[in-house]
Amino acid sequence: MKEYTPETIRNIGLFGHASAGKTTFNELALFIGGETTRIGKIEEGNTVSDYTANEIERKISISLSACHLDWKNTKLNLIDVPGTSDFEGDIIAGAKIVDTGFIFVKAVEGIEVGTERAWEYLKSDKKPAAMIVNKIDHERSDFKKIVEDAHEKFSHGVIVVTFPAKEGLQFDTVVDVLKMKAYKYGALGSKTATEIEIPADVKAQAEDYRRELIEKIAEESEEIMNNYFENGDLDAADIQKGMKLAINSGNLTPVFAASASKGVGINNILDFAQEYFPSPAEMPAKKGFLGDGKEVEIVCNKAGEPVLFIFKIIAEQHVGELSLFRVYSGTLKPGMDLINQTSGKPERMNQFFTLNGHHRKEVPAVVSGDIAAVVKLKDSHTNDTLSSKNYSVKVDPIAFPVPVIRGAIIPKAKGDEDKIAACLHSIHEEDPSFNVKYDPEIAQTVITGQGQAQLLLAVKRLKERYNVDVDLVEPRIPYRETIKGRVDSIDYRHKKQSGGRGQFAHVFFKMEPTERGAGFEFVDAIVGGVVPGRFIPAVEKGITEQMQKGVIAGYNVVDVKVTLFDGKFHDVDSDEMSFKLASAQCFKKAFVAAKPVLLEPIYEVAVKIPEEYMGDVMSDMTSRRGRILGMESDGRSQILKANVPLSSLYQYSVDLRGITAGRGSHSEKFSHYEEVPKEQETKIIDEYNKSRQEEE
Question: I need a labelling partner for 220 at 20 to 30 A (CA). Which of 94, 565, 597, 678 fits?
């Protein structure tokens, strides 16, 4: 088996809008590189990277997939990520773990929301990128316009390296402006391209593109620029040096023409990646943190202390959890004992595998900079760092996105709760951007994530893995009840006589509001023993239990102060239960008399949108009872901030995509509670009373 060094590895992510051709490109690359013997097709459900039943059914990538091939004695690790923001967690994980990215653009549709987000993900992580204009064999392909649009939207550093000699159905040749040669591709599956002279009708275009590329390369150093001025061109050594500098700095984003479905242009792209893309050894040192929180640089060195970072968990039936990781330092070998720097527990490294989708190949070692997988770790998860006991360091973790959509899981049959919890936890392990928790305040299991498709997939997996049927519904809103007025004296007398020992308790309360957020306060102001001390805890318990049940609408009561200042008891009939019951009823009487109100949770929402959608988004926000807090610019986008009731945010991410043609995104976080408008409050209370009557 071939051994690689950090210098002979390239870690490349495949990014772009859904259906831009990432998975098809991956198929061609694996076939041309000799990793597969046939070219899979998405339509037939037999591609290497989209191998799960749900991916085959939906014909889209749902989760990150790791593949690799050998290209001219260099290992190319290809990380194929989803194209839709419903599965944004894996897109972000992919951007974090690779060194460079291919951004795929459709030759007809051009720059789409997925293109823009891929650019943002890579640039925010300071990762070099290349742009692949794919599907140039389509009749309405417009390569030149897409390059111009990319200049305008992204950077003037987006510069052509290969372009089509002809577009549309006749597309079979790309022109390489670096080599000033054309490459004619044969039938799909031929694996090679024939080098030919550049056709005369595109020679001038090739010279223009080359001039633009060479000038960009020359800008990377004074020495190279001087050579360019002196000679009017650059030699191979200057091109090699300048190209690497320009790509690594992010100043140059090379553009390639391709048709992944026809196999045209693929070899040129792989050649370029092998020759000019940075190896792990050429990338900046990885940021990490020692046990005391001190920041350090983790240097890519195969002789260093072993450090690996888990970026993805895959649960496979009959195998268990497969942990995908990248090595940032050292060389890993089976039998090693490493320390999980999150839990502090040891982990024995057993077999290591390289992956092509779900196909595994055992390897004897994994060198710094490489990507591989290990099975049967005891207690390690995504974002965990494992390192030697001599080097207690944590890799800077993946910042998974905060949830933007929520739903409640309602079992159709009783007794399935444990199965549901186990399955949902497993889904979270595989995709940390999917979260689950039981909310006792609304008595529901709530799942959250990045999009409706992600939540619906979780429901489908419950059925597939555990044969559990559930409904996905809008979660209840955790309204709260409180008071605005005060009651100086109110009492309740509980008496029950049914033969033998009876029940008796009489309590007097004073009730008043506390400051918002101060919580519940109970004051025992009894003097003279009119309520014996042994019954005081029962009084408080009766109050707190009633607060949990609510009074006017069935929601938790908050921010009230109750003072027990008088009462009566009976030597024989009084007991703890009597005082608990009396206190609950007295609390209800006092609460109703103290001007009760409903409170609703308010969330702070930040909406990022292109400026042209601002009016529509603001109008929609107002219709949701949103209160605009302000606006600010973020590059070409605007960020609108507003306080919005949680009750108005259900599926807002879905609605926002519709309003902005998919180009809007948002985040939301809890801010505070405030009073529900009277009309809304009346409706909620009426619905509560109606439901109680139906139950009775």
Answer: 94
| Per-residue pLDDT at 498 | 74
Find out whether 586 and 509 touch, Cβ atoms under 8 Å: yes
Residue closest to 269 by CA, chosen among 78, 18, 37: 78
Alpha carbon distance 1, 156 (integer Å):
43
What fold is seen in the domain 481-594? Answer: Ribosomal Protein S5; domain 2 (3.30.230)
Interatomic CA distance for residues 696 and 687, integer angstroms: 14
Closest residue by Cα to residue 135 from 224, 46, 264, 16: 264
Would you identify the CATH topology of the domain 598-679? Alpha-Beta Plaits (3.30.70)
SS (H, E, C) 407-439: EEEEECCCCCHHHHHHHHHHHHHHCCCCEEEEE
DSSP H/E element including 604: strand 596-610
How much is the pTM? Answer: 0.91
pLDDT at 318 over 70: no
pLDDT of residue 17: 96
Q: Which fold has domain 405-473?
A: Alpha-Beta Plaits (3.30.70)
Domain ranges of the chain: 6-198+251-282, 291-395, 405-473, 481-594, 598-679
Q: Do domains 405-473 and 598-679 have the same CATH topology?
A: yes
Q: Which two tokens stand for residue 481?
A: 């009840």
Instruction: State how far the alpha carbon of 340 is from the alpha carbons of 312, 345, 389, in Å.
Output: 15, 5, 9
* φ/ψ of residue 330, rounded to 5: 80, -175
135-to-108, 138, 408 alpha-carbon distances in Å: 8, 6, 41
Angle between helical axes of 266-276 and 22-32 (0-180°, round to 10): 80
Q: Regarding the domain delimited by 291-395, which CATH topology (the fold level of the hierarchy) does it fall under? A: Elongation Factor Tu (Ef-tu); domain 3 (2.40.30)
6-198+251-282 CATH pick, 3.40.50.2300, 2.170.270.10, 3.40.50.300, 3.40.140.10? 3.40.50.300
Of all residues in the chain, what percent are helix, strand and coil, respectively (each to 5)? 30, 35, 35
Average pLDDT in the 126-147 region? 97
Residue 396 phi, psi dihedral angles, 5° rounding: -50, 120
Please give the sequence-ordered ranges of beta strands (E in DSSP) within 38-147, or none if there are none: 65-71, 74-80, 100-106, 129-134
